[in-house]
Structures are given as structure tokens and as C-alpha cells.
Amino acid sequence: MGRLFDFMLPEAKSPTADSTDALFHFINEVSLVLLLGITIAIIYFAVKYRRRSKDDKTPVITHNNALEVTWSVIPLMLTLVIFWWGYTGWLNLRAVPDDAYEVKVTGFKWAWNFEYENGAVSPNELHVPAGRPIKLVMISRDVLHSFYVPEYRVKHDVIPNRYTYVWFEAEEPGESQVYCTEYCGTSHSMMLAKVIVHEPEEFNTWLATANIPGSGTPVEQGKALVETNACQSCHSLDGSDLIGPSFKGIWGREELMSDGTTITVDENYIRESILNPGAKIVDGYQNQMASYQGLLDDDQIDAIIEYLKTLE
Ligand SMILES: [Cu+2]
């Protein structure tokens, strides 16, 4: 507490934060001492050994063993200390405690999805119990992303075709911000999520009532699918224009396509829009939607259609 460079760090909410922060402070403080020492020495010597007269000559110095050993050995020791400290800290961050609670994380353009042991999912909200280590097993559906929670000092790349993991522990109930910290396209800066930390009891209650995909009426399932696939990052529900047309009032809407034809939004058109978005482009928009072929099956597409019908 109360270290010089504290202002550079967000609040620390994980027990592993202390060791990360201690090294951060050490490096910064050593750098500051060296910077001041070197600057003062430069100024002092520049004044002391300035040229005083025309025939003021610098004596020829070939070397100075004592000095050279000093300025090699001290930085070497410092580097070794920093390396050792960083390496052991890193090992600690890689070694997941045995009793960790596991959550699966999927990153995709431009949202996060979290899946729990009972099959429940929560788009853009990572719910965890306080005081228990949490292991996140992460994968990307499309491009490189990076999972970053500054308050837990946790940051790790999330990549396609390969699982990566991180662990952290949240000390107190509360909320923390998750960022994507690997530039991943147009709405990268909107690729946000929240960590919501519950008391352990409260977490179990939440888990028992959380949405399990495939349960509920088709409309409910459709709503959940739209949320977990982050369709909303491009399609608003309130009529506002995002990257794609709003879903509000979409059912039965007459629309002009970029090729001049007009269509009426029905089951077939929605299905085609999801599986082959490039087939017809709505006038005024670009072909920016990726196909959900292989990601959404027929039942799921039906559920989404049922849900879209309700958005009047
Ligand atoms: Cu991203």
C-alpha cells in the first residue's frame, strides 16, 4: 500500500495480484532510481569537467576495471532478480489450484460466452463464487482475442482451434470489467463482459436458475441464442442502426436489397440470412455478417425465427 507507482494500477481484487504488483513496483522504482542517478551524474560531470580554456585537454583513459565490473555486475544482478521473480510469479499463475471451479469461455466477434458445469450459459457475464479459484478454459470461434481482467491481473490470448487457460480468484463479491485486449476488428472495443462475483451460496442459486441452452419455449430459446451468439452487437432490438439492420419490427418487413429487388422478411429469408448472409444484401448495409453454417442447427434457426417474430 502507498507505493509510488500505485496510481498506475487499477484496484487489486485477486490474491495473486500482490505478487504481480510487487514486481511491477520493484521494476518501476529501480528504474526511477537509476534514471535519477544517471541524470544527476550526467549533469554533475558535464559541469565539473566542462572545458575551461583553449588548451584544456582530456587525459587519455583506456579503461577502468573496477568501474567496468561494477556497471556490468550490478545490472546483471538486477536482471537476474527480475527474471527469477517474474519466472516464479509466472509459474504460480500457470499452476491452477486443484479445487478450481472450471468455466468454459468462448470468444468471438464481438462477445464472450461463458458455460458452466451444468450446461448453463451466460453471454457477456462471467458468474463466479467468491473465495474459490476459478479456471477458465478458453477458445475462439474466429480470430485472435485476448481475455483481460485488469483487477485480477489476468490476461491471456484466446485463439481459434486451441484451448488456453487462466485462473484467478475473486476475494469479494462484486463486479469487474473484462476486456478483449487483442485487436479483432470493427467492434473490438465493444467486446466487453463483466465478472460477477457472488457469495458461494448465492452463486449456486444463480447457477440453478441460469439459462441452459435447449430448454424453454422456442421463443425463449431463440432469445437465448441471439444473446449467446451476440447478434445484438450488430442488430439492435430498439430500432437503432448498428452494423446491420435492427431486429425491431423485422418480421414481415418489406425491404429493398442492394440489387434493387424488394423482399418481405419471412422464414426462408431469415434462414438464408443466417446461413448465407451474402446471398441478399440489405440496401445501405455491407456484407459484414459471417455465416452461421455449422454453428446453428435447424432447430436453433427455427427458434431464432420464432423469437424474431415477437420483436414488434
Ligand atoms: Cu476480441
What does this structure look like?
- By secondary structure, the chain is an alpha+beta fold.
- The protein folds into 3 domains: 6-47 and 64-94; 101-209, Cupredoxins -  blue copper proteins (Immunoglobulin-like, Sandwich), CATH 2.60.40; 218-309, Cytochrome Bc1 Complex, Chain D, domain 2, CATH 1.10.760.
- Helix content is 33%, strand content 21%.
- The chain is built from 6 helices and 12 strands.
- It has helices at 17-48, 65-94, 200-209, 218-228, 267-275, 298-309, and strands at 101-108, 111-115, 121-123, 125-129, 133-140, 145-149, 154-158, 164-169, 174-180, 193-198, 254-256, 262-264.
- The strands form 3 sheets. The chain has a 5-stranded mixed beta sheet with strand order 3-2-1-5-8, with no helix packed on it. It has a 5-stranded mixed beta sheet with strand order 4-10-9-6-7.
- A hairpin with a 2-residue loop joins strand 1 (101-108) and strand 2.
- Helix 4 (218-228) crosses helix 6.
- The radius of gyration is 28 Å and the shape is elongated.
- The model has no long low-confidence stretch (mean pLDDT 91).
- Copper (II) ion (CU) is lined by residues 107, 145, 180, 182, 184, 188, 191.
Which short descriptors sum up this protein?
single chain, 312 residues, alpha+beta, Immunoglobulin-like, Cytochrome Bc1 Complex, Chain D, domain 2, 3 domains, 5-stranded mixed β-sheet, 6 helices, 12 strands, binds copper (II) ion
